[in-house]
Amino acid sequence: MPVEPPPILSNVPGSFPQSVLRDRHPAIVRHVLEGIPYPPEVRLRLERLLQEPVIAPLPAGAHDAAEWARWGEGMYGRSWYDVPFLWAENFFYRRLLDAVGYYAPGPWRGIDPFGPQKDAGLPGPEELAELDALQALPDEQQAGALVTAALWGNRADLGFRLVAQGADRVDELIVDESKRLWELLRGGGAVCLVADNAGRELLPDLVLIDFLLRTGRAGRVELHVKPAPYFVSDALPADVLAELRRFPAGSAVGRRLRVALEEGSLSLHADPFFCAPLTFHDLPEQLAVRFAAAELTILKGDLNYRRLVGDRHWPATSSFEELTGYFPGAVAALRTVKSDVVVGLAEGAEWSLPASWRTSGAFALVQVRG
Ligand SMILES: O=P(O)(O)OC[C@@]1(O)O[C@H](CO)[C@@H](O)[C@@H]1O
């Protein structure tokens, strides 16, 4: 294991993490308030959260106050900008849930503050028909098209869209190890898919799952989603169900997915770990066992990538193989690059890329460790 570089903080002027805390978080709160007519006390709490001079802990009565006290040791009382970026973002979403009363007894309990935005991002009939039509292609072509769709679907991240300029969109796959991914998927064993965003990302994920099951490339699929609203558009169990309802009555894919859930060849999981400020190095036993037993775990998205290699200032040429060696079982990352952390690039590969390549979402990676 190489020596760990320091974690990414948000206090570097002009940096991406600084812009997330300074610009993206207020924009997220604004959209929440536009989407849901929360009462004055909620609006005030959200306003206070944005103005908070130093990080305050969760109220003592919160169900997870003890865990957050442990995870946040040394963070409280400091500036949001001076603590690790990954932790600060995670805690922001947890505090946002607290401010809107997501866990509190009362009328707002369980109401997804990002629900209206997610609804607007649900796929329409054309997208559903396009993905359905892929079934007519030969298997090999379907496989390629589905990985591409699941990969680029990751740009449908609503937090990212709130502030992305898209000026120098190029859309380029800078590492493509998808061949290795398919090589690992021939045995008909279990596959874990750790989902990222609902809506236009989850749709191709579901169609990919259907393909894996239908063609016997997976005997069983575990779909892992978030247990609570997180990073705006991240998928929850309710979002999976909403998505399934979008498939027209006559859709063979929709019907098969439903039957797979009913019969158990597709199972839904929402472990609390996925909303914790931790990396996969700290996987709880119950998840580590599942990932170890799977033929492959597919991690979707930018945040899962940061959690896989560690949210640190890694040189881009650091070995993906080495940094993910600790992960229990084979792992594939399907990610559009939307933050600073990148590893596994060939020497000099970044020289020809535009200055914004790490955060524009125009570049993507398919990286695999078997
Ligand atoms: O995980 P996802 O949905 O692909 O991306 C999440 C994201 O938009 O949020 C973070 C910044 O807030 C970045 O890691 C990334 O750009």
UniProtKB/TrEMBL annotation:
Q: Which cofactor does it need?
A: Mn(2+)
Q: Which UniProt keywords apply?
A: Hydrolase, Manganese, Metal-binding
Q: Catalytic activity, per the record?
A: beta-D-fructose 1-phosphate + H2O = D-fructose + phosphate; beta-D-fructose 6-phosphate = dihydroxyacetone + D-glyceraldehyde 3-phosphate
Q: Which InterPro entries match?
A: ARMT-1-like_metal-bd_sf, ARMT1, ARMT1-like_metal-bd
Where is coiled-coil annotated? none
Which residues are in the Damage-control phosphatase ARMT1-like metal-binding domain?
Answer: 67-347
Recorded protein name is: Damage-control phosphatase ARMT1 family protein
Q: Which organism is it from?
A: Dactylosporangium fulvum
Lineage of the organism: Bacteria, Bacillati, Actinomycetota, Actinomycetes, Micromonosporales
